[in-house]
Amino acid sequence: MTPEDRRSEGRRLDRAEGFGERLLGVLLDRAHEMPPQLIAPLIAEEVGRVGGRNVSVLLQDYGQFMLVPLSGRGLAASEPEPIAQSPAGAAFMRATAVEVPQTDGVRVYLPLLDGGGQIGVMIVTLDSVDDDDRRLLHRLAGLVAHLLVIKSDYTDQLFQTRRRQPMALAAEIQWSLLPPLAMSVPQVELAGILEPTYDVAGDSFDFALNDDILHVGLIDAMGHGLDAANMASIAVGAYRHARRADVGLSAVYSFMDEAIADQFGPEGFATAQMMRLNISTGQLTWVNAGHPAPLLIRNHEVAGRLESPTTLPVGFGGEDPHISEQSLQQGDKVLCFTDGLIEEHEAGEEPFGEEALIRAVNRIGQEEESVREAVRALSHALRENRGWRTSDDATLLLMEWRGGAADHLATLD
What is the pLDDT of residues 117-146, one digit of tens each? Predict the structure, then answer.
């Protein structure tokens, strides 16, 4: 095409700003300087432009039981809604809009999605809903989710909204270390959960998707309270530092080992598990430094344990660790967990046990479709089976390998 042809083509393109572009553009134009307290009125104004009213924004609480209303000028007052068995919860867990007819119109529940993880739900009432409304509301909810995530870096309002009881200082430190609790891309989905929500101290996990490699780390620092939280902070920091230096799993283990030993001496240690999954091929490699063996879930049932030679926990100066490998099949899930999950018991009684965990995994695997639904349901079911006792930290992290590619997401139709 000649320069003259390109100029002619450019003149033929319609670049006039349409209604939808103007509506979403306001959020984009103002987002970089928007004070956090003005998020709510801006959302209410934007929804009002499409004929919406009674706008509410609900955020997931830390325990993953409830969706809690965000307060703010322009947002309708509402009550917390259970994630289980509510329209808001259905939209949240299934990552799809739910429409509920009412006498004065249609109440629409829109999941707030960011990076494949769900932040909460935006709820709005319209007189009626057509495909144009659905498309615009879907995109508006996506922008609202991104705005909430961005602003959460310099306001406490969103954290305060999500809390339903006081949080211990050690737990405050641990939650500040965590990445998002879920991630979903076409090739892989991952979700994690910590217990006890408001008192966790030594458990933590971390992950990062770098090109085609998903890096996952699970950590259980010795002790309780602030000492455990401080050790977990060092362990996670060392893990991230080594991971970002792009070294192998053996070097990651060594770096974490030295960091814990230097800071806490010969008596300090943390069990750990570091994994790498090639999301293109399904090749999984890992180092186990004292954790229970992960469970391999295939066709919705536990197919076995990912047994491997273990090395000493980090901090004990172990030798170069054994690197284990497993080729996953599309649809395989891997469940990682810390020992607090299966060792919970009353004095003089038997521990909860891994067999009870496997039975719960098999039952829930037949009921829940998404990884997020499964890990949440599993955590809550296990806590209920243990009589809601959690005397030690317990962490669950579930990932599913789907394979395929995501290049189509970078192509405009």
Answer: 678 999 999 999 999 899 989 988 988 898
Sheet hosting strand 295-298, strand order edge to edge? 182-185, 188-195, 394-401, 333-337, 295-298, 301-305
Q: Per the confidence metrics, is the pTM higher than 0.85?
A: yes
CATH architecture of 168-409: 4-Layer Sandwich (3.60)
pLDDT at 343 over 80: no
pLDDT, one tens digit per residue, over 291-342 is 999 999 999 999 999 999 989 999 998 889 999 999 999 999 999 998 877 7
Mean pLDDT, residues 359-379: 86
Contact indicator for 83, 66 with CB cutoff of 8 Å: yes
Domain ranges of the chain: 16-160, 168-409
Q: List the beta bridge partners of residue 278.
A: 213
d(CA 173, CA 233): 8
Tokens of 164: 């339903």
Sign (positive or negative) of CA dihedral 392, 393, 398, 399: negative
Provide the pLDDT for residue 2.
Answer: 62
The secondary structure element, H or E, covering residue 48 is helix 39-48
Give φ, ψ of 379 to 5 degrees.
-60, -45
Q: Which residues, at least 6 apart from 174, have a Cβ–Cβ distance to it below 8 Å?
A: 194, 200, 201, 203, 204, 229, 232
- DSSP notation for 172-192: HHHHHH---SEEEETTEEEEE
Per-residue burial over 21-42, b = 16 or more CB atoms within 10 Å of its CB, e = otherwise: eebbeebeeeeeeeebebbbeb
Query: Contact, 296 vs 302, CB < 8 A?
Result: yes
Query: Which residues are bridge partners to 122 per DSSP?
Result: 57, 110
Q: What is the CATH number of domain 16-160?
A: 3.30.450.40
Rounded to whole angstroms, how far apart are CA atoms 58 and 89? 10
